[in-house]
Amino acid sequence: MSFSQISFLQTLFGPEVFAAALRVMIPLLLAALGGLLTKQAGIENIGLEGLMLIGCFSGFVVNYYTSNWIAGLIGGAVFTTLAALLFGVFVISLRAHEIVAGVAVNMLGLGVTTYLLRAIFGVKGSFTDPRIRGIPTLELGFLENVPVVGVIFSRQSIMVWIGLALVIAIHFLLYHARFGYYIRAAGENPQALSTSGISLPRTRYITVLIHGVLCGLGGAYLSTGYLTQYVENMSAGRGFIAMAAIAFGGAKPMRVFFSAILFAFVESLSNRLQLVEVPSYFALMIPYVVTVIVLAVTSWREKQKSKTSTL
Prior knowledge:
Elements: H1 3-13, H2 15-40, H3 48-66, H4 69-93, H5 98-121, E1 126-127, E2 137-139, H6 149-153, E3 155-157, H7 158-176, H8 178-188, H9 190-195, H10 200-226, E4 230-231, H11 238-248, H12 253-273, H13 280-310
Antiparallel strand pairs: 1-4, 2-3
Helix pairs in contact: 1-2, 2-7, 2-8, 2-10, 2-11, 2-12, 3-4, 3-5, 3-10, 3-11, 4-5, 4-10, 7-8, 8-10, 11-12, 11-13, 12-13
């Protein structure tokens, strides 16, 4: 293998790519964790894209006015939770069609954020300002001299570690906590849950609120952690990719986590391909091609499973 070939492989598969994948993963992971909770509760929400976009903008605006990244994360979570609550009112109380309500949330997110960008900042396209405080990194000095591992983990955003902790927390919630059993029963056997004296609407409302917080944190991280600027429609399909991660991971936290890593790695790889003179239009389409392939595999797997169950 020639030196140029080795250099090419290091560019594409070096530890820097995996470090970048962890940063790219967080918005996908948080949205996917929120989406899997509602799916487990029997609510299919395709509005993750719109909720993330609301989190992006509201987190950015709060950060701008307070110059505080923690306030930005809280602001993103609060406003996104309010939007998720609106979705919950229509789906749970008014019994609106989930898909229609999800599409409405996506349209609401895009329309409101585009309008408010012009109304608040007086600009189109994008906005940044020195007052924005980025989410800090967590310096792990004891890892810096460790080959590969040090490059990947020694200087990651605080949100990367929070995201990993949330995977464990949600796994524990669903499979080891009483309320997690209520969530799963709301999706698997809602009549039995109601018969046992547990309020089905309340269980679903709480789940929707938690999923709103997670989507808001993911969106706020995207505009104030991964970047420190707001760009129109900056979620850029990540909510839909998060839905693909949920489907591929079977709505189970650990499997969804590995699905999110897969998608994040592919996106990071597509960014690196542009450094080795691969046409940008080809590199940028790779994550979406992989998403389509993953959905096709998931559909085939579910079809095979249904065939086996009928035999």
